[in-house]
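Request: Show me your protein:
***
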Amino acid sequence: MKYNYKELGLSNTKEMFKHANENGYSVPAFNFNNMEQMEAIIEACTEMGSPVILQVSAGARKYIGKEIVPFLAQAAVAYARSKGSDIPVALHLDHGPNLETVKDCINYGFSSVMIDGSHHSFEENIKVSKEVADYAHQYDVSVEAELGILAGVEDDVVAEKTIFTQPDEVEEFVSKTGVDSLAIAIGTSHGAYKFKPGDNPQIRLDILKEIERRIPGFPIVLHGSSSVPAKFVKLINENGGKIADAIGIPNEQLRDASKSAVAKINVDTDGRLAFTAGIREVFAKNPSEFDPRKYLGPAKEYMKEYYKEKIQTVFGSEGAYKKGE
């Protein structure tokens, strides 16, 4: 093992989820693809006193560099501590494709991993998820699996339609795999183009309630939960972009979910939109700008301020831990 996550100051998600479930909030799981996005996330969560899961997909890890990712996460912890905050920080693999990738991530300091066997049969999903859980638990790394399929596109994850999680399968899946949390499909969707104008997005809180009844106290995860804020879509389009008919999940529905068994909510697209809006605005106002600090800085601030707002309105995790200076 090259880097042990505990030596990097990171936490796994077990105690984070326990605290979240007991106190009626969800832990923000924010994806990042570069240093500025990571800074936006950790600054927002430090200032709000919110625990955080720093997520990278296999594609993002390849883009950043697997040798670099653990030290960005370590730097995030160091930043929070320097501000007097005690928020726990996890480094999580989002949509891990196989055991080989999971092993490599654990070797490089990840404290939490997801194995996405949702495209397999129920029996095969149990098999691959159990293999990952058995391996990861040797290193005290927490494991997330997925049951059901979300429509949409996120990096290499592509699905044409949603297949809702079947509540009558969750008990068997959880007991046979030994995973620590379960991502379910109840109507959320990957990407920016979740719904069309005129749609009335509704997540299936009835399915969530039945799952919660069957596996009480077990941490549930929602993927594809970006709200696709209209203000950033508008800003992008006003400054040369072309993002049409993009509608996300209403914040109030996600807040209802976070008050129940949902311990983790994933957000990626919203951060991308905020970041891109900041960059496009700078270039539209000053086409001659070529200093990366002058356009990545404002992009980071848009992302940071939006996530602070979302911590309050969606996750309910503000003040769960000590706020930073």
About this structure: Residues 28 and 52 are 5 Å apart (CA to CA). Confidence is low (pLDDT under 50) at residues 190-195. The chain has one domain: 14-315.
